[in-house]
Amino acid sequence: MSSDRLIYLPLGGAGEIGMNAYVYGYGAPGKERLILVDIGVTFPNMDTSPGVDLIYADVAWLEERRDRLEAIFITHAHEDHVGAVGLAWPRLRVPVYARPFTANHAARKMEERGQDPAKINVVGAWPERIKAGPFEVAYLPVSHSIPESSALVIDTPAGRVVHTGDFKLDPTPLVGEPFDRGLWAEVAKPGVKVLTCDSTNVFSPNPGRSEATLGPAIRQLVERAPNMVVATTFASNIARVRTLAEAGRDAGRSVCLLGRAMRRMIEAGVESGVLTDFPATISPEQAAGIPRSNLMLIVTGSQGERRAASGQLSRGKYMGLELKEGDLFLFSSKTIPGNERDVLRVVNALSEMGVDVVDDANDLYHVSGHANRPDLSTIHTLMRPGAVVPMHGEHRHLREHVKLAAENGLHAALAPNGTMLDLTGDVPRAVEHVETGRTYLDGKVQIGALDGVVRDRIRMAMNGHVTVSLILDEEDEPVGEAWVELIGLPETLPGGEPLADVLEEALDKFLSRADDRVMTDDDLLEKDLRIIARRTAENEIGKRPEVTVVISRLA
Amino acid sequence: MSSDRLIYLPLGGAGEIGMNAYVYGYGAPGKERLILVDIGVTFPNMDTSPGVDLIYADVAWLEERRDRLEAIFITHAHEDHVGAVGLAWPRLRVPVYARPFTANHAARKMEERGQDPAKINVVGAWPERIKAGPFEVAYLPVSHSIPESSALVIDTPAGRVVHTGDFKLDPTPLVGEPFDRGLWAEVAKPGVKVLTCDSTNVFSPNPGRSEATLGPAIRQLVERAPNMVVATTFASNIARVRTLAEAGRDAGRSVCLLGRAMRRMIEAGVESGVLTDFPATISPEQAAGIPRSNLMLIVTGSQGERRAASGQLSRGKYMGLELKEGDLFLFSSKTIPGNERDVLRVVNALSEMGVDVVDDANDLYHVSGHANRPDLSTIHTLMRPGAVVPMHGEHRHLREHVKLAAENGLHAALAPNGTMLDLTGDVPRAVEHVETGRTYLDGKVQIGALDGVVRDRIRMAMNGHVTVSLILDEEDEPVGEAWVELIGLPETLPGGEPLADVLEEALDKFLSRADDRVMTDDDLLEKDLRIIARRTAENEIGKRPEVTVVISRLA
């Protein structure tokens, strides 16, 4: 069929770091059979999404084409790749594929949302292949900051696509498979039509460093510490957690894991067989009985999360353990942009306790899990694809990655979320723009980012809220006066007068002069009362609050 | 009087970067005559202070002792040192002193808040002295990122205090006075009892670089740019603005200043005589008629502020000017921690336009205005004070600065906000803890950070808001049913039922069974209705909203 085409459509991840969701399709235009690669979350913040629990790419486009969707493939177990599988699954209802460790997490994500974990299919690595409509997909092992990360080799009638997932070129990742150049070269041999490639570290100018380089420095730090040592990192960075634990053990310290995610990840690593030789650990209860200088805690909360172990320890006791003057706290991690304030809150609280904090400022105690600029060039050159399609990054990363590919003599296509590329020809071509968006998990409910719910919350946070109540009798006359209730507004004016009184006075003055046309029309009356309340508040306190008007008519 | 003492009390700035406010006192305990050094602001954020306009140190302690307050001294014209003068003045009502350029800004701050700008007294630099009760204060010029920055030499009966203000050791600051080692040595000669010292850059390991080092790199960048160049920096960094403007002029470009603060600062610099030889500028209207490759814009908004020129240009036209593919945007600035998300929003919007963004990542286009760690050591060694009191910094900075002073063989005292030090003896001694806090400017009203107003707003932002209304007749029976209005909550449940209906049903069920004791007691009834609404919402949507209950009784 000469009209068949191979398409690519990022629904998430190509415009942000987080919430990855990439669609590939093959077939006649508008009738392509589809697969989805990854379905991850991103995290809310007070600026744009207060009160929201999780965010993932709106899969409405796929949902409407569910009959054409063959399968979902998860590249690795990071939240921004697998975290939304349980949320999105009821909307998509197709088989999900993942390697064992990743599948373990995906199954848990399904269970958490009341979905059937058996929908997760465990698959092996290359050369094993999964058939999904016109696609054949294989998991190509690659190094990253979590075990079992894989690129996907996606064979299609139009040629081979290699979708890197998140990766780095680490010959010694300590846990999980190393980057195997020979294997990747073998994959590239028949020709790679498109390399869809991780972009997060395109601005990092130096070659990435191996996980194995950290051991000696961490060991030295822990050995020299006179009192208790506490270290934090992403729980999913199992190699790092093991390095930290080994440094503790080798310094004669008992090791205690704190935080649910930390313990769960290590268990999952052991269960799935990717993690071996993890040092013996003790419980928090046991730790409380051990001299502080013989103790090492490995804790959750590297991003300053309030409820994680690090956050709780920075505010006092946690599980019977507490930090004291002269203890050492190591951030074996990088602060993700946007989390600076949260992390610094923890650091300053630790400083107030007299705890010495060490972070990654001097590059000694942390390495990134992503390919840096020279590493990206290495992959470009090794794979020699017909084109590079940068993915996973903010717009600035994608754009820079396009430039880098050009420097390497390769075609490249800039495709932010919603840009459908036709990959069939020699050069990718944008053929359509699809509306994309974000779905919020808000408590137990999924809402659209643009539904207005969160916008209203932000407005209340900025402006406060006024309830105006009014009762009207059968003759449309006010029963008593209008009254107001305030939330999130100053009670008194600079002159000392209660704000509520001033608002009520203005409302009553309006009501005393309002004509029948207004008093008989709830919509009109509500609108007018809202305007009066807002205008008066603006004059008096310089803020325009959100207003709820409650009009009750005695029938 | 042998019982007289010299005290130091930071009300703000010793626990954060921002809102500087330091008290010195001399006299009998509890009767000290007082002076205040600096009265600056810090900026709100959505996480902790949504809707707030400005924040400054609560001066309640001083306000209660106003009869003992002699004067306010402003070290320099940065917002975090002078920004609250107009807000705090009505509470303190004493003369304010500043050098001319700083006084110009202080006077404007007074006018903005309806205060008399004549309360600002213009003073000259060292050796001029201002007498204020038992104190004699002189302005010792020093380099920083704004002209006319000064340390204060505070002579007291107990000895000399040098309060550095913000500073760096720059022999060639381009605008404003260089650091004059000889002058500082002269000040130190009679002996310095205490050095109260800027701590912000104590973690920066390398010696600070001079403002003058930036010119060549900026010039080269601007010269090589093929299309329009836009540069942003803090408007108050007049030296930088001139360097940028000169680079534009020398590359044959017309220079246009965009943003009110940018134009105002340059005007103030010229008026006060600190700025000379600023290149000719053109208006936005003129700029619109000039070929893009001959144009350079210098704009406000280096921190990603939405309403600043950079923010507006990142979203489209501003003052008739707009960015296009191939233009260059230079951040000649550092992103202040906490502003990362805002700055990246601008950067990504520019990326979408095809604009090339250059920032300070490679240290070519920005230098800090503060003394780095080795520079602090230089000052320690030069002044050889009896003790160092670190100020202006988060707790972690103050603590590290204490360590650095110890490394340099000096006594040092850690004194976060509220710690009153007795400086009289050989070593500073903490003698009292004073409750400190933050005052919020919220629209036109000043409120306390702990008044609950902002807390309620944050709760509404997290949880949404429900209004519950109920009318009761003379027999305490409901007239009709309870009804609810929602803001910031999903309208429908996952099953499709309206949330409002479900809440109303639960409330009515409760009301149908409520006994007289409840129905006759507004407080009890209100409490019960709130609990029902919250509990039902939590069950249905997993959120506990804020609830306003309005009960109307027909008398």
UniProtKB/TrEMBL annotation, chains A, B:
GO terms for molecular function: exonuclease activity; metal ion binding; RNA binding. It comes from the Bacteria. The keyword RNA-binding applies. CDD domains: RNaseJ_MBL-fold (cd07714). Residues 18-218 form the Metallo-beta-lactamase domain. Keywords: Exonuclease, Hydrolase, Metal-binding, Nuclease, RNA-binding, Zinc. Pfam families: Lactamase_B, RMMBL, RNase_J_b_CASP, RNase_J_C. The keyword Chaperone does not apply. PANTHER family: RIBONUCLEASE J (PTHR43694). This is Ribonuclease J. It comes from Rhodovulum euryhalinum.
